[in-house]
């Protein structure tokens, strides 16, 4: 739920749709797609920071992970303690209303490869809580579309260190409905 305020890339929020299905008694696969947009935290300052209201941030994210559940006898996926390799790809275009008409924008893409450990609970018959943590590697690709040569190139030095540092530390939780 926190990714709706602060998404995987600078100044983004994330709205995710995920599906998880069991592939054996002790394994499951989760696939997620997300829309990335302007963070509500930025929207709080639109009236006080000039030009912020015209800023356009749009993109998407794809994630896949395969969970290996380490369950005691009689307990089966998708609940319990698990380990999972996780891959994620996120990409956004950053522009404003004027430059958007000129097909001028910055593009920021991030790849993540992680190993996660988590605990997935099913409360009642259908409410799911997944708490997880992990460590991984990430890398950024920066670019721009600038047919008129009017914007300066984007550099990793322009981003906060948390985005350009290659080590990815993950701590999070998901909630959902099982059916």
Poorly predicted runs of 5 or more residues = none
Report the structural category: mainly beta
Terminal CA distance: 20 Å
Q: Please give the count of helices.
A: 3
Characterize the largest beta sheet: strand count, sense, and whether it forms a barrel.
7 strands, antiparallel
Mean pLDDT: 90
Computed Rg: 19 Å
Residues in β-strands, percent: over 45%
Number of strand elements: 7
Describe this structure in words.
- The protein contains three helices and seven strands; from the N terminus they run E-E-H-E-E-H-E-E-H-E.
- With 179 residues, the chain is mostly beta strands.
- It has a seven-stranded antiparallel β-sheet.
- The mean pLDDT is 90.
Characteristic key phrases:
179 residues; mainly beta; seven-stranded antiparallel β-sheet; 7 strands; 7% helix
Concise account of the structure shown:
This protein has 179 residues and is mainly beta. It contains three helices and seven strands, in the order ββαββαββαβ.
List strands and helices in order, with pairings.
Elements: E1 12-24, E2 27-38, H1 40-43, E3 55-69, E4 80-96, H2 97-101, E5 105-123, E6 127-145, H3 161-164, E7 167-177
Antiparallel strand pairs: 1-2, 2-3, 3-4, 4-5, 5-6, 6-7
């Amino acid at each position: 739920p926190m990714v709706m305020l602060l998404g995987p890339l600078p100044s983004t929020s994330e709205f995710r749709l995920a599906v998880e299905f069991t592939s054996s008694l002790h394994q499951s696969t989760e696939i997620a797609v997300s829309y990335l947009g302007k963070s509500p935290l930025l929207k709080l300052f639109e009236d006080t920071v000039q030009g912020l209201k015209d800023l356009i941030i749009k993109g998407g994210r794809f994630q896949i992970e395969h969970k290996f559940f380490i369950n005691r006898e009689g307990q089966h996926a998708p609940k319990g303690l698990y380990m999972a390799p996780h891959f994620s790809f996120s990409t956004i275009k950053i522009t404003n209303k004027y430059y958007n008409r000129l097909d001028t924008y910055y593009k920021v893409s991030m790849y993540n490869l992680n190993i996660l450990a988590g605990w997935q609970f099913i409360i009642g018959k259908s409410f799911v809580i997944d708490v997880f943590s992990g460590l991984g590697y990430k890398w950024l690709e920066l670019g721009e579309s600038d047919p008129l040569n009017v914007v300066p190139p984007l550099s990793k030095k322009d981003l906060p260190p948390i985005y350009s540092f290659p080590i990815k530390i993950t701590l999070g939780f998901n909630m959902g409905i099982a059916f």
